[in-house]
């Protein structure tokens, strides 16, 4: 339905649209653009008419927008450029931005070929401001990461917690069965920690736990090795694809890492904070259970404590 007012109405609609509209002629020159785009680009409304797109918007040179325009004009093909891959191709800023510093607009762009009556090919570019949804998405991602941290990180030491460790143990146990690799576990316990707390106070005790966790974590070099806080003053280390000999070498390095802290312990025969370590290794199979490995490491730890602490014991000795 058209009446006499139709062209005028179309024009004011074009200018009232809450999205950017840009029409290029067959040579890729700007034929028309709407008020939304004038405002968002902060440019003079007439100055750009007749200019090639990449002269008017130099930031588009060699971008996917330029390629998509070529495809529309030469091959009659439409393109959709989502904000995931092309966050902000045009140099545009938020129109309803309350911030003092103008915020670069995140854009979703649709490029469509337009064939006219005289057979000249035109190209329609529609630009949508998706900044709000990009920001929302970022916030959601940050919250998800935070929730993940809360669920799997120990609050005091910042290293993974027991829940994380248990999930990893089940995962690594299955992997070791598939790959027929040995899997080792170290159970680590701080020596005379009750006395430490009693002598120096709980706060010092917490700091000591934090320092030891940091030292143990730093001493592990392979990205696949996992340390977690297992309980109060107990840590556990999972060493995938590691036989007993390797497991003992690492346990020795961990003993040294804690000794090298030289953290004074007023009520220990060693005079500094030390740990005891129980080592266990298994080549997992479908008939065995991962919990047996933990029990063996626990028993080895018990023997390390019995034999004077500040040392390692393995489940075979
Ligand atoms: N400061 C502090 N102390 C903790 C924390 N978790 C556990 N503990 C303390 O660690 C101590 C562990 O004591 P025990 O299990 O008797 O072991 P121990 O004194 O280290 O003796 P051995 O293990 O035999 O060398 C207890 O006093 C707990 O209160 C914590 O998060 N912070």
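^ Assign residues to that structure.
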């Amino acid at each position: 339905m058209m009446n006499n007012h139709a062209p005028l109405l179309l024009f004011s609609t074009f200018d009232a649209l809450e999205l950017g509209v840009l029409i290029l002629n067959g040579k890729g020159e700007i034929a028309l653009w709407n008020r939304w785009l004038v405002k968002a680009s902060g440019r003079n409304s007439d100055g750009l008419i007749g200019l090639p797109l990449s002269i008017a918007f130099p930031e588009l040179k060699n971008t996917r927008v330029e390629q998509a325009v070529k495809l529309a004009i030469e091959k009659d093909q439409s393109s959709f450029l989502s904000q995931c891959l092309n966050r902000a191709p045009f140099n545009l800023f938020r129109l309803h931005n309350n911030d003092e510093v103008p915020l670069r607009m995140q854009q979703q762009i649709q490029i469509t070929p337009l064939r006219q009556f005289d057979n000249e090919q035109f190209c329609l570019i529609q630009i949508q401001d998706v900044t709000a949804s990009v920001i929302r998405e970022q916030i959601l991602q940050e919250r998800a990461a935070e929730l993940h941290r809360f669920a799997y990180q120990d609050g005091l030491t910042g290293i993974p917690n027991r829940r994380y460790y248990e999930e990893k143990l089940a995962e690594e146990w299955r992997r070791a069965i598939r790959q027929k690799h040995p899997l080792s576990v170290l159970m680590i316990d701080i020596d005379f920690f009750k006395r430490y707390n009693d002598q120096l106070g709980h706060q010092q005790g917490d700091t000591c736990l934090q320092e030891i966790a940091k030292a143990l974590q730093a001493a592990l070099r392979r990205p696949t090795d996992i340390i977690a806080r297992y309980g109060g003053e107990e840590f556990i280390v999972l060493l995938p694809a590691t036989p007993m000999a390797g497991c003992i070498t690492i346990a020795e390095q961990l003993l040294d890492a804690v000794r090298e802290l030289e953290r004074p312990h007023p009520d220990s025969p060693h005079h500094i904070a030390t740990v005891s370590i129980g080592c266990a290794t298994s080549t997992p199979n479908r008939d065995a259970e991962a919990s047996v490995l933990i029990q063996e490491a626990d028993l080895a730890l018990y023997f390390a404590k019995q034999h004077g602490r500040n040392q390692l014991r393995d489940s075979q000795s």
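Residues 153-314 form a domain with the Alpha-Beta Plaits fold (CATH 3.30.70.270).
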